[in-house]
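REVIEWER CHECKLIST
Item 1: Sequence provided? yes
Item 2: Single chain? yes
Item 3: Sequence as submitted:
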Amino acid sequence: MKIARPFGIPVYVSPYWFLVAGVFVIIYAGGLTSLGSLRYLVAAAFVVLLYGSVLIHELSHSLVAVAFGLPVRRILLYPLGGFSEIEREPETPGRELLVSAAGPAMSLALAAGGFGLHQAFNPAGIPGILLDQFILANILVGIFNLLPGLPLDGGRILRAGVWKLTGRSTTGTIAAAWAGRVLAALLLIVPLAIFARVGGTFQPFDFAWLAVIAAFMWMGATQSLRATRARERLPGVQARLLARRAIPIPATLPLAEAIRRADAAQARALVVVDHDDRPIAIVNESAVMATPPQRRPWIDAGSLARNLDPGLVLPADLSGLALLEAVRKTPATEYLLVEPTGQVFGVLASIDLEHAFARA
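Item 4: Structure as written out by the authors:
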């Protein structure tokens, strides 16, 4: 659900957020019995302040990224925090450091601002309670996110440092991801070890929350490792190697005849050309397959083609991330590949590209 668009950046809320926010309200209200019937209203206000702080935290990441020319697709608020979907990685470790540190720095700045207000006005009652919790929440968010392991901001800061030392962003990601896995394990092991040594009443609910956070960190670190390994293989995904041989046809050619010519030439794609043999459209394979054989002699091939918009014509030399970004800009089922001279090389089917990226 889209809830806002600050600075042109869409902000979405996960459906599960409402459920977990309601649980937070009930839990927090349980400790405010002295406020009577107002305790649920105060608890709801605190949850709004908490997630508002998380939004500002994520917005700080996004605005620094935008300042460096990195597109931000959206900000997502989910039950355990937030996430800024930045479409490209920073080009240098210095920029990675600044983008990553912006969120924790803003959280700690909010805590400092709240502390300043507390010192200046010393509010009592409900305002004092909310301000104290606001300060504590931002301190916890800021410090927790500085822990050196992915997917936390501290992990990205660690990644930037290793990247700077080694000169390889991949090495930094692997080091930070494994650090994140270690932190996830420690989140479970350390509290259990302390409980076993010190004793006391075991709180299953508290352990459950630690388990959820640990699982979140472990999965985020694992996803980073998988993405890095895939990225290392992406240069092997080349448009030339995936191209289908294509034959030129006039738009008025019956579909049955066009298929016969393609079979004879051992081609798997049809390109519609004009009177000067210039490509103007690509016949859609799905539309061809959906046409019953008995109707194909009576249908013009051009009626099943998509005109060649500029985004559908790609250089045949594209590969890896550059190829992925090119097709993301203009989603389609087929793309025309051309040589640097402008000569047609072939047709790239998106289904072939998807399979290649999946294998990578």
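Item 5: Key structural point noted by reviewer: The CA atoms of residues 17 and 303 lie 47 Å apart.
Item 6: Recommendation: ____
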